[in-house]
Amino acid sequence: MIDLRSDTVSRPNDSMRKVIESSVVGDDVIGDDPTVKRLEKLAAHTVGKEASLYVPSGTMGNLIALLVHCQANKAAIVGSESHILWHEGLGATQLGGIHLISIENEADGKLSNTDLEKFEKDKVAHPAVICLENTHNRCGGRVLDGKYLSEMAIRAKELNSKVHMDGARIFNAALALNCDVAELTQEVDSISFCFSKGLGAPIGSVLCGDTEFIQQARMMRRNLGGGMRQVGIIASAAEFALQNNVERLTDDHSNAKLIAHALSQFTEVEINVDDVETNIVYFTLTNIDGDQFEQTLLEKGLSVSRPKSKQEIRIVTHIDISEQDTKQAIEIMQSTIADMSN
Fold first, then answer.
1. The domain that contains 64 carries what CATH number?
2. Which residues pair with 259 in a beta bridge?
3. How many domains does the chain have?
4. Hey, CA dihedral for 48, 102, 314, 306, is it positive or negative?
5. Cα separations (Å) of 38 from 26, 34, 41, 219?
6. Please, are residues 214 and 190 in contact by the beta-carbon 8 Å criterion?
7. Range of 103's domain?
8. Rounded to whole angstroms, how far apart are CA atoms 166 and 203?
9. Are residues 86 and 232 both part of a single domain?
10. What would the pLDDT profile of 114-137 be if each residue is shown by its tens digit?
11. Which residues touch 318 (CB under 8 Å, ≥6 apart)?
């Protein structure tokens, strides 16, 4: 089975499993796990922050960030297509009483300038934090560049707000822009990023910020039940991923482009190849039933997803998908589209 549903479906390779097997552990809740300490130091340094906190998931990392930032003002600006709004169970609202102010996402993942200007003019709330997503999942893996991030940081200061980045795939963004990842994080107050997506680790994310912020985040993690004991077993995999699996993300980008170019040849497919900037490909089927298309692909050994609508297909390339797998997936989709078009 060629699984292109998400980059979260990958499995640890033999090298990572050996690292896991030999990991040195301790009780992380009381600060005794040397592997976690090393990982947190490495992660913070990598994105140019003072400190970081290892957490079980990106959802928890984002939730903790919002809970810490919104202790006084219970409001946060999020994108209308953001992962925080759509795929995190509205935890900030449910558990923190935080009002999520939805600002329209443009097609490229940026927040609508028109919506922001209207919000600033109306002054209906005082957001404690503006949340950005880089790369942007539901906008097709689109990238926010340093210029835009600097502009948003200035805007946040005018609102007396912090900036949090959901950087689950931040290394994809940095490689797509050919820049150091710290250039994309220097203007934000906090950032979370995932080890279990493109980097290929089995579990875990990290939340980064200044020392005071992470001290508060550490307490908030325990309040949420996120304290873990001998967690160096999985932190070792995250450390391995951060040290070895970043640069290879460009392979995923290349494979995504191959798929996009191949699909663009069909009149039954709506896709803009130029919009495919990283490892996520969205396309819309016309005159082909989405349910039947997905089922037929599955029967032929190819798994895709439809997280937004019946006719819109999402494909995500990742560490377990080789160029040969990509070409085979293209052949399966080409034959299926051709058969269903007749």
1. 3.40.640.10
2. none
3. 2
4. positive
5. 12, 6, 5, 20
6. no
7. 14-244
8. 17
9. yes
10. 999 998 888 778 999 999 999 999
11. 6, 7, 9, 10, 197, 198, 200, 252, 279
